Amino acid sequence: MSDAPTRNIITPLIVACALFMEQLDGSIIATALPTISRSLHTDPLHLNLAITSYLFSLAVFIPLSGWLADRVGARTIFRAAIIVFTIGSLACGFSNSLLTLILSRMLQGLGGAMMVPVGRLVLLRTIPKSQLVDAMAWVAAPALIGPVLGPPIGGFIVTYASWRWIFFVNLPIGVLGVLLATFYIDDIRGRTREPLDKMGFILMGLSLAGMVFGFETVGRHLLPTEAVIGFIIGGIICFFVYLWHTKRIQHPIIDLSLLKYQTYRASIVGGSLTRIGIGAMPFLLPLMLQYGFGLTPAASGFITFASAAGAILMKICATPVIRAIGFKPILVFNSLINAVFLAGCALFTPETPHSGIFVFLLIGGFFRSLQFTALNTIAFAEIPTALLSRANTFYNMMQQLTLSLGVAVGAFLLNLSLSWHKQTSLGANDFWPAFLGISVMSLLAAINFLPLPAHAGAEMSGHVVPAKESEHKDPM
User: Are residues 27 and 145 in the same domain?
Assistant: First the structure.
């Protein structure tokens, strides 16, 4: 085993690689759908089920991840999750029909549901709070880089090789992840073994599956509008039944009482609004550049890569920036900055220089990644060690739900724009209302962060609040 300083560097990298593998896989398949549909002799619209089935499985099993990690051990579950995800990738690569591809993607979703939440839980339990900002900076970057790299890599693979290599590229990463986890991740377990909330698991699984599947099919014309509305309403009903259920048991699988912690509540609510806006970006930008501006997939992928480059630059600056400014000013003002950059995309036209778009996205990617790092860290500032597993499960569940909702919001706004312009195909003028719409989410997030005390998360950031300012700190 390695010493603590080395482990504090390598452990976040292992978790980051797992997150990158999941995020890349989730976005890379979209570019390859037409090629896969021809290979499997099926309608491209039907092949969207390969995406929604993955999200369906992910949503259902995320609530189980924390309980399994506490019972069996974080390293054991993390390794098992990587293995399941890798086997699912292998099965996807060998799929010869739509049904086998959907079932293989659901297997991938099962692995992904355990892999990322448990990986973050490992960080929360092994990395000292004073070093957690650095660790979360590494983990936040793949969440932005994966969706940006997915389209150009997917386009390259389907152009110069078989689409099956989209899934086969996960195999060496999975093997490396299992080996590194064996040597550098401790098999931490919960101090107490709580019983599994089986009814809560079923209700929350149905709720998440209904809402995620409903949100993902909005605007895609895969199902009748009545069916989409039925999925969303059914998910909402199951959620309210779950709320009633939590009042009758001691250890619910998703503990909503965690919202009493101010920093956690602010990160959940404000982070959800932030992710709805940011979650729409990987969906809207490639469509605008290719359908609206007539760029090739390769040119579009190169321009959108700027966001990933900005996220990488952020890792160098995140810790000193947070330490110098503190969490609250960053979350408030950075939300406003992100709103400006989201709204700024509405000003792009086919005549806008590509270099200008690249620089604009580069700077925007930096601030979006900084926001993710701050959100992912401050969320756990007040959470007691005994409740980390529950808090982590809840947090990951909301991440998945709101990122999916971001795509749905983007698709919905595009459909409204098409109806407004009385058109049936996307054009350059159809995208600006969508970008303005998602920028509003970031503005609302800024309002949510205002009640935070100036000293919020100071133990993690190392930011020293002046005495006069700390005298007016808000009660928890």
Answer: yes
> CATH number for the domain including 40?
1.20.1250.20
- The angle formed by the CA atoms of residues 460, 401 and 348, to the nearest 5 degrees, is 90
Cβ neighbours of residue 186 closer than 8 Å, sequence gap 6 or more: 74, 75, 122, 126
Contact 393, 60 (CB under 8 A): no
Per-residue pLDDT reduced to its tens digit, 423-443: 666 777 888 888 998 899 889
DSSP 318-385: HHHHHHHH-HHHHHHHHHHHHHHHHHHGGG--TTS-HHHHHHHHHHHHHHHHHHHHHHHHHTTSS--G
Which ranges of 161-292 would DSSP assign to H, the alpha helix? 165-168, 170-184, 198-217, 225-246, 262-287
Q: Does one domain contain both 288 and 223?
A: no
Distance CA 395, CA 265 (A): 10
Quote the CA–CA distance of 107 and 86 in Å, as a whole number: 9
Q: Return the number of other C-beta atoms located less than 10 Å from residue 126's C-beta.
A: 18
Task: Note the pTM of the prediction, 2 decimals.
Answer: 0.74
Looking at residue 368, its pLDDT comes to 86
Residue 469 lies in a domain: no
The CA-to-CA distance between both ends of the chain, in Å, stands at 40
Neighbours of 72 (CB within 10 A): 14
Tens of pLDDT, residue by residue over 113-171, are: 888 778 777 777 777 766 776 676 666 666 556 666 676 777 778 777 888 998 898 88
Segments forming the whole domain that contains residue 210: 197-243
Q: What's the token pair of residue 248?
A: 């009758």
CB-neighbour burial class of residue 24 (10 A; exposed 0-12, middle 13-18, buried 19+): buried
Please tell me the distance from the alpha carbon of residue 106 to that of residue 84, in angstroms, as a whole number.
11
**How many Å is the Cα radius of gyration of the chain?**
21
Asked whether residue 104 falls in the same domain as residue 166, the answer is: yes
| 184-213 pLDDT, tens digit each | 777 777 666 678 888 988 998 888 878 877
Q: What's the token pair of residue 14?
A: 């292992």
Q: Quick one: pLDDT at residue 138?
A: 66
CA atoms within 13 A on the CB side of 133: 25
For residues 115 and 79, give the distance between their C-alpha atoms in angstroms, rounded to a whole number.
Answer: 8
| Residues 272 and 232 reside in one and the same domain | no
Euclidean distance between CA atoms 272 and 400, whole angstroms = 10
38-46 average pLDDT score: 72
